[in-house]
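Here is one chain, start to finish.
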Amino acid sequence: MAAPPSYSAATSLGQPSQPSGSRIRKLRFAEIPPHLLLNVVYATLPQTPGVDESAVERQRRVLYWMSMNLRLVNRPFYVACMHVLRSIYLRTYERLIRPPYTSDPFPVLSPAPSYEESTSDKPPAASLLSPTATSSALLTPFPDTLPRETRVLDQFIALKVREDAWADATSLHLERDEGYKDLFDLMQPRARVEDLICQYAVREGIVSFAGSSRPASPTGSTSELSRHPRPIPFRLLTVTFSPWRVGLAITLSSRRKTIVEVQRGARDESLERAAKRVVRELRVWAAENWR
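Its structure:
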């Protein structure tokens, strides 16, 4: 029998050919459209049980790998992985918020990702989280412009995926409850107050935030605004939080100074009320000290 025709000869049988001298350019991972990259990440979640582990256990192991390895490949993979991880663990995070504290990891300062509600602490199957989400849901800011509570959510996810994976790997693993205690007794309410202060202060034109979707619209009299014409960058401000008081500090030239401090009316006072009182005091401080 005659040898089969060469691969290059097939182009003469009606198949398209490349112009002479041209080369096919290969796409890099960083150039893959976000919705396709999200499909790739979803496809890593197994749907069937293994030899000695359930499908849920296999998924938790993949989520651990996704958090510890895959999201560190580059920025597009980081965005896609965090979209998946936040969608899966958001409901678990919200159930651990301690009253009277409130939570909003995705305030109006940034676009909120879509997610499917789950009544179980176990990760839902990948088919429940639609891989056809619009690319706008993937345009999550990078950590330097994230709302403060979003960072706390990400820290919770990093802790949760590790604890779940290690508990599945060995019955000798003991979950570290103090890690969750620090997150929800201190870090979460402090970050929530910071985001609330940012929202209220940006609305009044006292503070500017790089991730804000709309410019500040200052309120108040012309004489008041003329005394502090430029808003304070929110990146310079941090909150000190305790059950009894809330303070606001500013960092200038590597030096941190407390500029506002208010007493909480009671341990069950809402974070929103405390944040509004801090903003009122910040307006007074800015009028006298911020030029």
